[in-house]
């Protein structure tokens, strides 16, 4: 049967505070998590999420879109890549990331980003 589903990030099914430097909100669409993350100036995965995740680097595969801001991703192999507003991205497991500049970063992630808290 065809159906349409609409969920609002104003009423997320799950929300995680990231040490006061941001938060993640998640809604489910047809069994698939969709996440909206907001990272404030000064946010870095290794400082704000590593203690929650319990791993040395983020081990989640990300597929998403950057709504606003500038994020720098540091892969475990030493490669760095910048993600800016308007960019679609795919990030493999094994990375750190940080907000660049004074503007917050807003990302929409399609997949299982909540698996690595």
UniProtKB/TrEMBL annotation:
Domain annotation Cupin type-2: ranges: 61-109
Q: Which domain of life is it from?
A: Bacteria
Coiled coil start-end: none
InterPro entries in UniProt: Cupin_2 (IPR013096), RmlC-like_jellyroll (IPR014710), RmlC_Cupin_sf (IPR011051)
Q: Locations of Basic and acidic residues compositional bias?
A: 8-29
Region described as Disordered: spans on this chain:
1-29
Which species is this record about? Glycomyces terrestris
Q: What is this protein called?
A: Cupin domain-containing protein
């Amino acid at each position: 049967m065809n159906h349409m589903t609409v969920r609002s990030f104003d009423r997320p099914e799950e929300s995680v505070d990231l040490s006061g430097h941001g938060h993640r909100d998640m809604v489910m669409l047809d069994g698939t998590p969709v996440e909206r993350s907001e990272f404030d100036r000064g946010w870095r995965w290794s400082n704000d999420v590593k203690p929650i995740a319990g791993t040395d680097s983020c081990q989640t595969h990300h597929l998403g879109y950057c709504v606003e801001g500038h994020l720098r991703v540091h892969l475990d192999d030493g490669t760095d890549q910048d993600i800016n507003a308007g960019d679609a991205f795919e990030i493999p497991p094994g990375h750190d990331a940080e907000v660049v500049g004074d503007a917050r970063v807003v990302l929409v992630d399609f997949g299982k980003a909540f698996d690595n808290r």
